[in-house]
């Protein structure tokens, strides 16, 4: 081989080696990126599984409190202690309002416990709101023992079902938003507790339940979208600050004490929270 041929061969070989080296590097980088992405996906899956397990445990804890509070409420009703029953009514319901996304998954148990007048046929209407109407409208506990017993049985059935519940990740994603929608749809309007006017207790409990879900998802949100998480934490803080104006020594003021300006203020902070809250599903899927 003459000198020219050798040089030509080397010249042709070098680009080939460089190209091969480049391809190898790109392939290596692609494989590394894939491994990193798979590792992140696995981590997110583990974190989501932890969140789901923790939410199920939260559901159990809250329904334990619900059984406890309902038991005390029913005892007061059956003892004919109207004032005590009225006092216990709003706080007994709060644990249920915090975990309503789980409760609603059990078919007819939710309406048996929480249906408002007109939600179901009159002959099928039972639960807390049936008793609420009698206690506040008729100002008596007479003739309510059967409703009280049925309520406690239904609440205990709910607790038993949650023990075996299969909570899906989607329950968390939609649950946080659904709880806030509950506030907008029936608490802000005063429709939920139309006789007792204890809507602010339900309002606060729904927000508590939504905040709990965000807290459980925060490790994933911190990694995927820390700015969104910061916004959510600030907006939740704004809601709780707004609620402080209506707190009393033992709970909250009657909803009838609120002016139109008050309800508009509460509606504004709820709407401000709803917008970033609705982004959670997109972020988790991304």
From TrEMBL:
The keyword Transcription does not apply. Residues 51-279 form the Imelysin-like domain. GO terms for cellular component: cell envelope. The keyword Signal applies. Keywords: Lipoprotein, Signal. It is found in: Cell envelope. Pfam families: Peptidase_M75. Residues 1-20 form the signal peptide. CDD domains: Imelysin-like_EfeO. Belongs to the EfeM/EfeO family. This is EfeM/EfeO family lipoprotein. It comes from Halobacillus salinus.
């Amino acid at each position: 081989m003459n000198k020219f041929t050798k040089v030509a061969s080397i010249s042709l070989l070098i680009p080939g080696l460089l190209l091969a080296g480049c391809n190898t590097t790109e392939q290596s980088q692609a494989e590394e990126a894939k491994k990193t992405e798979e590792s992140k996906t696995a981590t997110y899956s583990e974190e989501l599984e932890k969140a789901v397990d923790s939410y199920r445990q939260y559901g159990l804890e809250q329904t334990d409190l619900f059984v406890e509070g309902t038991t005390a409420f029913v005892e007061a009703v059956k003892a004919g202690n109207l004032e005590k029953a009225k006092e216990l009514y709003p706080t007994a319901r709060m644990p249920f309002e915090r975990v309503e996304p789980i409760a609603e998954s059990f078919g007819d148990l939710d309406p048996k416990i929480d249906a408002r007048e007109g939600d179901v046929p009159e002959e099928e209407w039972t639960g807390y709101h049936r008793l609420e109407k009698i206690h506040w409208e008729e100002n008596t506990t007479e003739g309510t023992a059967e409703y009280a017993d049925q309520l406690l049985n239904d609440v205990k059935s709910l607790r038993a079902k949650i023990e075996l519940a299969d909570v899906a990740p989607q329950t968390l994603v939609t649950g946080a938003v659904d709880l806030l929608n509950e506030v907008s749809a029936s608490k802000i309007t005063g429709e939920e507790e139309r006789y007792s006017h204890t809507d602010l207790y339900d309002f606060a409990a729904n927000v508590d339940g939504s905040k709990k879900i965000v807290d459980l998802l925060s490790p994933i949100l911190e990694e995927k979208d820390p700015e969104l998480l910061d916004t959510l934490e600030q907006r939740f803080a704004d809601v709780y600050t707004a609620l402080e104006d209506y707190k009393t020594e033992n709970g909250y003021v009657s909803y009838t004490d609120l002016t139109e300006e008050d309800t508009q203020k509460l509606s504004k902070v709820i709407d401000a929270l709803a917008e970033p809250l609705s982004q959670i599903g997109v972020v988790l899927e991304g």
